[in-house]
C-alpha cells in the first residue's frame, strides 16, 4: 500500500522498552498524532471540524500487525489512507515505515457520535467530502 497521507515523526528514547524498540502501545499514539495533523491540515483543527457539525469521533477498533521494529532516533512515516466511510464510521488504513522498511500495518475505525449524547450519528456530508479529498485513495 502506498499511503495517501503521511506524517513524519522521530522516535524518542522514552517511547522504547528495555529491549530498545518502540513499546507496542506507542504505535497507536503515533497514529493519533498523525490523525491530529491530518485533521489540522484538512480542517484547521479537529475541534473546528467536529464542533461545527455537532459530532465527535470515538475509536471503535484498532488492529495492528507488527512487521519490524523502530528504535530511538529513527525517523518513521505514519501513513494513512481512507479505507472506508460508512454511515456512521470512518476506517483508516495504517502503514508505518522507516524508509522502505514496513514496521506496522493495520486499521483504525472511528465511530461518529452526537457530541452531547454520544449516540451514534451519521458522518456529516461536508466531513465525508473533506476527508475523501484529504486522504482518500488517489485515482
UniProtKB/TrEMBL annotation:
CDD domains in the record, alphabetically?
4HBT
Q: Which UniProt keywords apply?
A: Hydrolase
Per its UniProt record, what InterPro entries does this chain match?
Answer: 4-hydroxybenzoyl-CoA_TE (IPR050563), HotDog_dom_sf (IPR029069), YbgC/YbaW (IPR006684)
Give the protein family.
Belongs to the 4-hydroxybenzoyl-CoA thioesterase family.
The protein in question is named Thioesterase family protein
Q: Which organism is it from?
A: Aeromicrobium alkaliterrae
